[in-house]
Amino acid sequence: MGSLEDIEIFDPLFFNISPSEAEYMDPQQRLFLQNCWTCIEDAGYNPFSLSGSLCGVFVGCAVSDYNKLITDPKMYNAYALMGESVSILPARVSYFLNLQGPCLAIDTACSSSLVAIAHACDSLILGNSKIALAGGVYIINTPDIHIKMSKSGMLSPDGHCYSFDQRANGFVPGEGVGVLMLKKLKDAKKDGDDIYCIIKGWGVNQDGKTNGITAPNTKSQIRLQTKIYKKFNINPNDIQLLEAHGTGTKLGDPIEFEALCESFNKFSYHKNFCALGSVKSNIGHSATAAGVIGMIKIILSLKHKVLPPTINYNILNEHIKLENSPFFINTKCKSWDIKNKKKRMAAINSFGFSGTNAHIVLMEKIKNNENIDKFINNLPIFMVFPLSAKNLSQLLIYAKLICNYISKDLKNSTVVKGITDAFSYINSSVQYK
C-alpha cells in the first residue's frame, strides 16, 4: 500500500485552530488545508493575498473512517461533528483564507478528484471563479477498507498492482493528497505566472443504466472521450502519453483499453505512438485522490520532458491487443521527444465505480514569461528571503526546508522567481521573523 508519512503532524495554531479541535479533525481535513497553502505558495503567491477573492475550492473526498477511532460516546462533541463532515473539508480552506468562490466537496468514488478539477475548469469559464484550488485527498485510518475489499474479492492477494499485465489480480489501496491552482490562461499570462501546463480539454459523464451499477462501461467512456476531442478540437494523434485509470484488474484494464482504442481510431489510424501507463502500479489506488495524483504525474512529465515508465509490467494482459493499437507500454524512463514542432500533449482517464467518468487533456506550457528570464539575468550576488512563523521551532524548520529547496535547483529561473515572489512578504500577525 502506498502510505503517506507523518499524517499526524499538524500545527493547528498556524491555521487559528485550537489543539482540542484539531484532535477531532479528520486527517484529510488537515492534509488538504496544508497542501492548499503549499500549492498557493508554489504558485508564487502570498496565500493571504487571495482574501476576498473569487477563489473556488473543489475537492474530491469521501466520508472518512477516522471517527471509528473514537470508541467512547462520551468523547463526541461539536468538534467531532465538524471534524468528520465532508462539507467542512473544503470549507476549512475557504474560511481560513476568506475565499469567496464556490466551495465544493465532490464524491464520485475513484474519479472524485478529476471530476473536481473538471468542475473547477467549468467554474473558471463561467466566471464563478477567478482562481480555483482543485484536487483530492484520501487517507486510510482503519483496516476496514482492506477487509471489505478482500471479502468482495477485489483486493490483490500479493499487494502489487499489475496494470495491463497478465498478473493483474486486483486493487492495491493507497493514500494520497494533491492540489492544483488553476486560472484562465489569459489571466495567468497577464499576471506573469509560471505555468506548469495548459488544460486543453475536459469533461465528465455518467454510465447510466448498464450491466451493473459498479461495472465499467466501454460505450460511455468512448462517448466522453470523443465528445471532448470534438468539442475542444483535439486530434488524439497529437497525444503522446495517456495516464490510464489502470487499476490492475484482469477485466477492467481491457475494457478501458478497448474504449481508448476506439476513441483514438475515430480520428487517427497511426499505430503505437502513444505511451500508456498508470501511477497506480507505483503507489496503489488512492481512491478519491487518484485522479489528481495521475494528473500531477503528467504535469511533471511535461515539465521535465520525459516519458515515465510503467512498473510491474512483464507480460501483456491476454485480453489486450496492443500490437495494432495506437498505444505502447513504456517500461523505461526516457526523453519525451517530439517531431514536426508539435506540442507535447497528454490525457488522463479516471472512472468511479459509481459510474461517473472524467477525462482531461493537457498540453505543455508556453514559453516562460519574459519577465522571469529578465529577472534571473539581473539577480544580485546576495538575496534576502524574509521568513515568518508563529514560533521559533517553526521558523527554523521553515528556513531549513527553503535552503534545501533552493540548493537543489538554484539555476532554475522559475524556482528562484517563485521563491522571491512567495517570500516577498512578512506576515505581520506572527511573532517570529
Automatic annotation (TrEMBL):
One of its GO terms (biological process) is fatty acid biosynthetic process. Residues 1-364 form the Ketosynthase family 3 (KS3) domain. Signal peptide: none annotated. One of its GO terms (molecular function) is fatty acid synthase activity. CDD domains: PKS (cd00833). It comes from the Eukaryota. GO terms for cellular component: cytoplasm; plasma membrane. Keywords: Phosphopantetheine, Phosphoprotein, Transferase. Gene3D superfamilies: 3.40.47.10. Pfam families: KAsynt_C_assoc, ketoacyl-synt, Ketoacyl-synt_C. Belongs to the thiolase-like superfamily. Beta-ketoacyl-ACP synthases family. This is Uncharacterized protein LOC113472169. It comes from Diaphorina citri (Asian citrus psyllid).
